[in-house]
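Appendix B, record 7
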Amino acid sequence: MLFFTHILFGLLIALLFKSFLPEINYWLFLFLVLLGSIFPDIDEPNSKIVNWSGFIGKIISFFSHHRGFFHSLFFILLISLILNLFLSIYYLFGLVLGLFSHLFLDSLTKQGIVLFYPLPYFKLKGWMVTGGIIEWLIRLIFLVLIIYLLI
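Structure tokens (predicted):
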């Protein structure tokens, strides 16, 4: 999926969960959902997250391959265990929501994801072409739903 589709889906999810959250800093929660929604593409050398993260992103993308470890449940588990030491459960939940949203959308594409990478036994893949007309229609639906929730 393309960057803006991931961002729009992350925003939609954050808006849907807003009313269920206690009194927390919603802007931080939103930021973490959006970060999670694009972070798995740190393994793609031409992604926006690699460009924004500079030298570190370039190193990570050089030593990994797209839709590998960063697109797996093992990555989400590892990052959750580490960040649980530093973030409250609600902010960690926001980041994990974003990460899952990214994996969900990428699993709908023809390239798919290996959910339990590096174990190749369970690959989720769909029928959508990244950047194709269906993705553009889904992006439009997300945008309409976001506007509806904001009105």
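Remarks on this record: Helices lie at 3-17, 26-38, 48-63, 73-83, 89-107, 133-150. Residues 3-40+74-150 form one domain.
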